[in-house]
Amino acid sequence: MSEWITRAIPFGTEGDLLVTLASTFGHLKRQGEGFNFHSLLPLDEPGMRFNDGALDPDGYLWAGTMRVDEDAQSGRWWRFATDGSSRRRLDTPAFTVTNGPAFDAANAKVYLTDSAAQIIYRGNYDAGAGVTGLAPWRQFEAGDGCPDGMIIGPDNLLWVAFWDGACLRAFDETGSIVHQVELPVMRPTSIAFADDAILYATSAQFGLQNDGVQGQTLRIRLRD
Predict the structure, then answer these.
(1) How far is CA 8 from CA 17, 45, 63, in A?
(2) 3-state secondary structure of 191
(3) What is the pLDDT of residue 1?
(4) Is 49 labeled as ligand-binding?
(5) Which residues of this UniProt protein bind a divalent metal cation (predicted)?
(6) Fewer CB within 10 Å: C terminus or N terminus of the chain?
């Protein structure tokens, strides 16, 4: 493939992946020792690209778009059927750098991030409309870093990677910080839990000196 993979999500039972590239989304189907990419729906928006995404509680893919050069608040959120049969633009403000989403199924909430604006939004998850009542939830300052990838953890806290913050932070539903995990990388980008004690965090080396640590994937034990 000649484009970045911007998001990869395990899909099905055969080791396949649901992926977004810069200009399309589709399936990476396991084929022998490798994968074969099958494009489902192109973005068809000149100057835009996909960034982050996740599956919602009803099995639809949410994918955020943004300007390739990150120079304007023109990114939007889309909701796709995973077989490519439908897509819908969600009712959200325009974003500069889209990250997330994270779904709190227990409380029917969805979280979305505009990393450039350092804002996490929260709204009500709706199976039909996707999201209603979306509003700014947490605004961060320059010294905090930029909220990037996020996930609801097994503890039902919102875990967020902070680009240029060198940490992960976990928030309760009031927006209070419950945990902060300091990292040896400046630009953590995304989080995945292996279980309730171990998580993995990816990071970016982009714009940083190569010291052998930046850009690595970290395995973090939260408790014994």
Answers:
(1) 6, 21, 11
(2) strand
(3) 64
(4) yes
(5) 99, 148
(6) C
**From CA 122, how far away is CA 201, in angstroms rounded?**
23
- 148 in catalytic set: yes
Residue 190 lies in a domain: yes
pLDDT at position 14, please? Answer: 84
According to the annotation, is 210 in a ligand binding site?
A: no
Residue 62 lies in a domain: no
Identify whether 211 is part of a domain. Answer: yes
Q: Is 148 annotated as a binding residue?
A: yes
- Average pLDDT, 10 consecutive residues per value, the chain (224 residues): 88 91 94 88 93 97 96 94 94 97 96 98 96 98 97 97 98 97 98 97 94 96 90
Number of domains in the chain: 1
Cα separation, 120 vs 175, whole angstroms: 10
**Is 175 part of any domain?**
yes
Catalytic residue among 16, 56, 114, 148: 148
CA distances (Å), 91 to each of 73, 123, 124, in order?
15, 11, 12
